[in-house]
Amino acid sequence: MSTVYLAAEEETNRQWAVKAMRKQGICDFEMVKQSLLAEASILKKLKHPGLPEITEVIDRENAVLIIMDYVEGWSLDRIVKEQGPQREENAVDWAKQLCDVLSYLHTRNPPVIYRDMKPSNIIRRGDGRIVLIDFGTAREFKGGQGKDTLCLGTRGYAAPEQYGGRGETDERTDIYGLGATLYFILTGHDPGTAPYEICPIRRWDPRLSPGLERIIQKCTRKNPEERYPSCKELLYDLEHYKQLDREYKRGQNLKWRGFLAVFFIMICTGAGALGFWRAGEKIRENTYDLLLLEGKSPGGQDPEESIENYQKAIGLKPWDGRAYEELLEFFLWENQEVEDQSLEEGISFFSVDEEMEMRKALGKSPWREKSNEEYLRENQKDYEKLAYDLGLAYFYSYQGTGNKASSRKWLQIAAKARPSEKLEDSQIQRAGRLWKIAEYYGTLGIIDPGEGLLVSYRDYWTDLVKILDQELEGNNRLQSLLACQELEAQIAANGSDFRKGGVSREEMEMQIDRIEEALNNMEILESDPDGEYTRKMKDKLSACLDAVREVIQGVYNQENIQKGRGGDYGTDTE
Hints:
The protein is an alpha+beta fold. The chain is built from 20 helices and 11 strands. The protein has helices at 29-44, 76-83, 88-106, 171-187, 210-219, 231-239, 241-269, 273-294, 303-316, 321-334, 342-345, 352-362, 372-378, 380-397, 404-415, 425-440, 457-473, 477-500, 505-521, 531-565, and strands at residues 3-8, 15-22, 54-59, 63-69, 73-75, 112-113, 122-125, 130-132, 139-140, 447-448, 452-453. The chain crosses the membrane at residues 256-277. It catalyses: L-threonyl-[protein] + ATP = O-phospho-L-threonyl-[protein] + ADP + H(+); L-seryl-[protein] + ATP = O-phospho-L-seryl-[protein] + ADP + H(+).
């Protein structure tokens, strides 16, 4: 909403930063102007070595100028991008300085909530001091509002409550941003870029401090109640993070000693060892079943508790497919967040966070020699069934639109399976058809100098229609709806490419007519399994038919216009 200039005072040659906003070219000038003046009003009340000071505010009819300290240095964003992840000592020093700045802000009367903590807003001066700049989204905390008026912040660094409807921002909001910033400084992985995740830092570098990993995870909890309540408590842990390291190592040693003790007892008992093992297996089985039961999220249970129960069950028996299957089903059908309104819109949503939990479930536990996926692979039928379900989740539901590339591995496994009580022949054939599309998805329209077109949009269209044919001939309503959804979506997204590939207008319109007929003839009862979801999905697809027809009309009308000019489509001959 403004431009920042570097200015020099003529008499003293002192440098200043001048934030300028002019009325020309700005919509809602008065509203933006008030926002800029509000920023200035907050900063004028503050005096801290970690904050720039405002010298003067010039408010004119057509412009606003804010003159403030010029902070010379590099942003932490630039430092990490040019130098790579920083040493732990540097990261902790900067985080402690930021804690001091935030503590100052949070103890004003009223408290000031910064709300845009991120590396690009933090300048490291030449003397090593940290300065926090850009107060455009800051607010004075009033309390009792329930939620913020505006949703402000930077994706990846903004806490969940900043997106509106999840409570009012407070000190813990800034603590979340500080945790995300510390994560970026230590790992070099930006949570502000896809897939917008903050995973344990030692996944990127096992040499990093377990204590700092624990601190960052606590800072970035989705639930504000689970974060540090104040920067004072966060600062204490930052000053003692090496002590947290020692506690972690002590815990690991105790686990190892406990294992050795049990192993020694089993050897000493000799003949009783077999009975001891059987009793342990019985306990394991009962605990596993109980965790699955508790994972089904009875009313009022926190979804994170359900996920934790499933993860514990997988840790107990990584070779059993039930826990993986129920965890994936939980993500697709139960754990739908309010903001994406997945069920209301007829979309099964498999989010980035849910994908990370599935990766964690298939990953390696610290106390095992192999990954959980390797254990499950030994149980071939369970592994193939999970591969089928996970392949479909990626193909159709990832981020609400699907990720064909990520589905390839899993669909290939399912496509090469043999029919069993876990995976029927029709499911294997479906996996094969989808795998074919996923396999060449990245080469659509690409020309190989030696071989010509690798995969044409004509081929893609033919395979999409085959999938629709086979699903409409079957008796699985959900799969039929998914096939209809895929064809509608691909016409809307790639209509022009299909036309260039030789698909006629009549072919496209015929398939849309088939979809409309199939939807009109499809009877869904509320008592059916997933009846509410499939009904809403059917209604959504029906509502989109006219829009898809308009896309087709637009694609071929554009072709006619180009022909009227005497040129090929996409070539300007005027």
